[in-house]
Amino acid sequence: MRVVILAEKPSQAKAYAEAFTIQEKTKTYILLKPDETFPNGATITWGVGHLVELKEPHDYKSEWKRWKLDQLPIVPDQFLEKVSKGKWEQFQAVKRLFQQADILVNAADVDREGSNIFYSILSLTGVKGKPVRRLWINSLEKDEVRKGFKHLQDNDKDLRLFDEAKARQISDWMVGINASRLFTLLLQKKGFSSHLTIGRVQSPTVYLIYQRHKEIENFISEPFYQIEGLFHSESGAYKGLAKIKEKDKAKVQALMEEYGLKEKEDLTGVVQRVDRKTNYQKSPKLHSLSTLQSIANRRWKYTPSQVLKTMQKLYEKRLVSYPRTDCNYITESEFSYLVNNLESYQKTLKVSFTPVSLKPNKRYVDSRKVQEHYAIIPTKSIPTEKRLSSLSREESNIYKEVLATTLAMFHGDYVYEETAIFTHVHDLPFKSTGRREVKRGWKELFPKPPKSKQEKEALLPQVQKGENVGARLYIKESMTQPPKPYTEGQLINMMKTCGKLMDDEEDVEILKEVEGLGTEATRSSIIETIKTQKYIEVKKNNVYVTAKGVMLCEAIEGTLLSSPSMTAKWESYLKKIGSGEGSKQMFIKQTNQFIEKLIQETPGSIQQVHVRDTGEKKKWNAPIAKCPACSKGFIMDRYKFYACSDYKEGCKVSFPKKLAGKTLTNHMIKALCEKKRTRVLKGFKGKKTFSTALILDEEYKIKFDFAKKA
């Protein structure tokens, strides 16, 4: 029986292969020697992420290449796929291996996109009727890989997840293509010189940032007044506040007069009561991807995307479990191996403590709450000192954070004492609160943050009931503060918990169930997308909406595209498709109805939008240079490529926006059209990065010219 295994990417295939004995390695596959798991050996091949993708509108009809209102809605009769650009050779290798196989194994990532990648490739190869098995593991550690291949699952659940992923992919395509063209073209009629890209998840995300922007912009700071007491006891000074907070200073002055008190006078206070309470704080829950992204952003200012990439590298190095998890729990099986490796983990983190308990605690270990993936924890692979020192700074920081959070569940509670002192001055009570650390407990495992001013002030002196203290009172003026902009880490939490911002009770419940906007795996890429689209910008880790972002939000205001409730209902129904209770066809039909409604209603609502200068340097569709072929038309920026404006008269000249991983700018295209060559350019990507000049050949195709020296 010839077994062919498809991994999602080469690094994943390499990790699988290293759990067995390799017979042969080639550019497109790895051959495994026969063993007890694979008596006849096996072949591992791979995608390069998405080997296939949905076709573009112009792949169906050439007239759909041009953006025109009267062509909307763009909905093909049947959604088809094509091999992604630059991935033809690998696709052909996978197709050949699939044709030769007796059994196929889907070993792509264990989520709905992994199912989508495998079945989309399988569909385009045309291979049918072969048995398919599913590898479902949470770690690339060798024992886990071998165990996973010995206990392959059937593909019933996998096929349902594929239907779920395909429904999402097609519907996102329909919304993106139609809404982007609809809003862009209507705004261009009003003088807008750029383009908008609109997406089911990215647009409501921008809108939530815009809402915070409006709150800050419309906030009017107002003064408020309190009475603050500065007290001097034999054991030290402390501050306290009276229970009054007023916008009207006269009311505060009247209260002081009522008690016969004057500001800035030397007075005597009496300690009426001292309350002390000991608090026990449990260690944090184990990390999901979003909690790790939030902490890393707060501690090191890492972007969510940076955290996911770093986690992926650590996963592929077999140091941590599956990164794209939304779960904070593990099962007793994982807990068992953590207990066995406890001493080694402590040595790795250079800490030493006696575990408080080696029994599983429901706060961290609960198999009922683990579905596809468990929480992020270290694997059984204990890195050597040398291996640890070879990690990048980001990898080291994040690995140690995962390790410390995991070890924390075996450590003691953090213990602190909260104190409240009630000091009366002429019978007017003042309250002072403070806290004192009693035992660091699990906090010993983490770097100690520098003490803030508030923490220093929170240390209260030891005073006794009935003690007289020196007192001086002040009327304290403060200003109300506007809400702060989101940080990138808070943006992840905001997307996850946006249900709290909804008014509709049903929407709140759905958003809670589906965990907000996007999924654990996609949130960081959504943030990167809206940064790339120039809807938001990040300054000193704070997120601000741009003029283009404001315009997008004004355009979609009042539609479902601005509301998290739409994506909530989508995700809720998608989950039903994944569990076999919903239908892919029904979902796509409803998306179609939504687009029809949008096309009818948007022309009226768009009239209210104020067209702004978005700061983009040039009209995206302005002429760049005279067409080198027909000399009548002009080469124009067509958003995803460059092309001649006289295409209706038959001029087919077009140039790509990207070549060998490098973006071709208007300036480069102008040089090619006018001089037939560019200077030597850096930053092209092949097996290594390289530099070359570009030339335009006789058929108006762009070629590399390595002969030209810098």
UniProtKB/TrEMBL annotation:
Q: Show where the Topo IA-type catalytic domain sits.
A: 158-599
**InterPro entries assigned to the protein according to its UniProt record, in alphabetical order:** Topo_IA (IPR000380), Topo_IA_2 (IPR003601), Topo_IA_AS (IPR023406), Topo_IA_cen (IPR013497), Topo_IA_cen_sub1 (IPR013824), Topo_IA_cen_sub2 (IPR013825), Topo_IA_cen_sub3 (IPR013826), Topo_IA_core_domain (IPR023405)
Q: What is any one of the record's Gene Ontology cellular component terms?
A: cytoplasmic replication fork
Q: What class of enzyme is it?
A: isomerase
| Keyword Lipid biosynthesis tagged | no
Q: Which UniProt keywords apply?
A: DNA-binding, Isomerase, Magnesium, Metal-binding, Topoisomerase
Q: Name one Pfam family in it.
A: Toprim
Q: Which NCBIfam families match?
A: PRK07726.1, topB
Q: What is this protein called?
A: DNA topoisomerase
Enzyme Commission number, as recorded: 5.6.2.1
Say which species the protein is native to. Halobacillus karajensis
Q: Which reaction does it catalyse?
A: ATP-independent breakage of single-stranded DNA, followed by passage and rejoining
UniProt lists the family membership as follows: Belongs to the type IA topoisomerase family.
Q: Which residues cross the membrane?
A: none
Q: Name one GO molecular function term.
A: DNA binding
